[in-house]
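Dear U.,

Please find below the material for section 3 of the report. The protein was modelled together with zinc ion; I have listed the sequence and SMILES used, followed by the predicted complex structure.
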Amino acid sequence: MQVRFWGTRGSIASPGPDTVRYGGNTACVEIRSASGVLLVLDCGTGARRLGKDLVEQSRHTHVPPSGCLLIGHTHWDHIQGLPFFAPLFEDGSVWDVYGPRGLGESIGQTLAGQMQYQYFPVSHEQLVAHVSFHDLLEGSFEIGDLRITAQYLNHPALTLGYRIEGDGVSVVYACDHEPYDPSLVGGGGDVSASRGDSRHAQFMLGADLVIHDSQYRPDEYLYKKGWGHSTVEYAVAVAAAAQVGTLVLFHHDPDHDDAAVDEMLETARLQAGNALTVVAAAEGMTLDVTPRAEPAQHVGSNLRAMYQPTTTELSAFIVLAAADPALRTAILRAAAEEHLHVLDLDDDDEPGVNRNALVVVDHDDALSTQAARLHTWGERAVLALTRDRPMTDTTVQDWLVWPSSIGHIRTKLRAAVLRRACQWQGAPLPGDEEQRLHALHALKLLDTVDEERFDRYTREACAMFHVPFATVTLVDADRQWFKSRHGLDIHETPRDQSVCAHAILEDDVLQVPDLQDDPRFADNPVVSGPLGLRFYAGAPLVLSDGSHVGTLCIGDVEPRVLDAGELAELRRLADGVRAQLEAGVDVARG
Ligand SMILES: [Zn+2]
Ligand SMILES: [Zn+2]
């Protein structure tokens, strides 16, 4: 895998005699796999020359310049080269642009914003190349023979870092990131002590090459806290903790001349010792990344980076536990701007309502924190605001240093909501999916009216097992539809959220005593959402041709376990339902 640097600077382009060696253009890195897959990481001003170079090459090869752009976030220094990226104006070029999705706006809309006529003479619609935009959440996806894993960084704007695995090596691009725990800024401290920093280290675990934000010296960071950038010392500490091969210092401060970068590189090398190699990114520098002696590490993710969350999944409650009036005002405003509903812990005496909540606490206020812990903490997402304390409470998922800008708070709320939206896993498709759907549709039962011949089974199941919910579920191509439902108002849900879609993969009853304890379901909206389902048991409905078309299932809001006798009863009821399915329309009329 080959890595080439076209822009290395952060914040703003800074050309001139003092930045000749490390370069003045803003972030842009070219990555090529051995098979020729081209990724462009960020599209700062460095992208202009890369674009010209790609078009020039295409003149010789007669192949239009095509590839993928991976945008970490949409701050100017990462996108300003886009309107000047020549391949986007080449006939026959195909570009896929990936970037973090927001709550309201897509990455395509945000990028189009900078090409509005107030800012730029050529509009977004005038791009000649075929350009597709892809919104990303945290998770993994594939581009050609490369596997990409995206993970949020700690920055005032929603920002993704990218881990790229292929050709037997892994390269991590983590640009615009600030330590979670301020005590790590000087390079001392324990990376594993804070949840955010250890998660960050885990993301780059065993990577052969890490391109990392290292904009500041510790004395500069003091005045730039909350701006979303790292010190060189932090970059080395986290890379060493992650057993990285080579660390590339990146996103150089516009005020640092070549001599200053030299000095920071020297400091970094002293700190790193024999643990890892450190280089400073320079415009024009090319690195060949080859496998190391150590076995390659794969840090994939089960999460689906390309998943498109529904509006319901994006609407979260926020439970606010804080007494500090300034902090409260800021959280309420940020939540309102993100259209998120806030429940004030003081007013809230109905704990059931908090199931779907993101808990926001003032971690320095012991009383508020304790109140939140009593009511709603536990397995829920927790965002803690703190002033100068070490962020070592491992029950906290994310931290924010207070005081903070409204924008930064919005980003944190957004990340928490988006993170949750992509966490549960949809069921894989059965091997006989096509045949199964054919058999299901042949029953002609989908979207028909309620029928007593099915309803009596769900009614009986609820009475027999003392549960609030029972359904006869038919699993269709992209939804589950309830032929009969007891205790539920809705007729269907997306297949992605369906526990029954897992149950039809089984030959016998699928029993999940506590859905919250099962990583497949813990974050599923039917579990974490208002319904609050905890227990599930579903018996597959298997037609005589062997097709598993659906289930007879029962559910409860409390965890429980069916014993052997109860399982046998559920199977018996399912047999009755199966017989009704195949009895066909004639019986239904009779
Ligand atoms: Zn930047
Ligand atoms: Zn930024």
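For the text of the report, you could mention the following: The pocket of zinc ion (ligand 2) is lined by residues 73, 75, 155, 157, 176, 228 (CB under 6 Å).

Regards,
Y.
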